[in-house]
Design goal:
single chain, alpha/beta, Rossmann fold, 8-stranded mixed sheet, about 20% strand, globular
Length: about 250
Amino acid sequence: MAMMHCTFTSAVLMRQCAMNVFVPEHPHSDGRKGFPVLYLLHGRSDSEDAYKLHGVNRFLVDHEMIVVMPDGARSFYTDMVSGERYWTFVSEELPRLVAVMFPARTEREATFAAGLSMGGYGALKLGLRHPERFGRIAAMSSVADIGWVGRKEGGMSDTEVNAIFGSRTAMLGGENDLFHLAEGFAPDAVRPKLWMRCGTEDILIAENRAFRDHLQKLGHWSLDYRESPGCHNWDYWLGVMPELLDFLEGKNQ
């Protein structure tokens, strides 16, 4: 396997950026050219190095996919009201760069997004806003209800919330609200397959359950949702990582 640390200039963010990219070293076993691509998004307190530092490499060696781990700062993968355009970066510019720089397949069934906490929110937002481009989405301990960020337990100041979303109320009912986005699908619309995991002692368990219930009430969603003992930490996330990767590759289904 090859794990690359790449620096590049982003025209959207107008600065130097970094990402870690896992690339298989051998041709795909099915004989097809190129590899499926997973955009693996980090949480609020981390950077592009988070998964690498916690040893995710050992899980990737058995999976034939390119894994792109970009830096999303504390943006919630959003075009910030007073800041940088991280949504445009991760949803538009980054896939174009990856398609040019690596042997990446670009068809929907070979394009995935996953993440933990803030990154789980970002992955779900990619799937709900671009179902025509993402076939599978996996989220661990996700900030499934963006309203949580605006509450005291979200741990963010008014200044930071306002810089990203405009206000604590502006984040709800629009393009950054996963509940609202899920409601916008017609019954026969194309949808990504969803996979969600959360620990029963996680600070975000109530929000994950609420989003699960919302999708079940709406109907027509393919959601694999499970809980197991665990907290909002790397012990839990690394524990479910093999299952996450198997889901993205369509194994055990």
